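FORM 12-B: Structure-to-Sequence Request
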């Protein structure tokens, strides 16, 4: 089992990877919800519920991934 520090470091590395590759990810996965683990997209789907189903099919623990909504190119969202 990973320590809290290991989990935080892994999450930070995945977020750095996501930011560095966001353009390519948007081109391929625009409009999808993705799961990120080990500096790669391990699953994608049209909705969060469908993504959870996909993770379950792949036997990936939903607590071991980062989930991000990928907005299509040219679409702007203000939070």
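FORM 12-B RESPONSE
SEQUENCE OUT:
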């Amino acid at each position: 089992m990973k320590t809290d520090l290991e989990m935080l470091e892994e999450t930070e590395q995945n977020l750095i990877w996501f930011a560095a590759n966001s353009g390519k990810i948007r081109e391929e996965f625009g409009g999808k919800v993705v799961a990120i683990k080990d500096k790669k997209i391990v699953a994608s789907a049209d909705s969060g519920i469908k993504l959870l189903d996909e993770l379950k099919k792949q036997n990936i623990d939903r607590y071991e991934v980062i989930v991000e909504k990928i907005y299509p190119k040219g679409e702007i969202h203000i939070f």
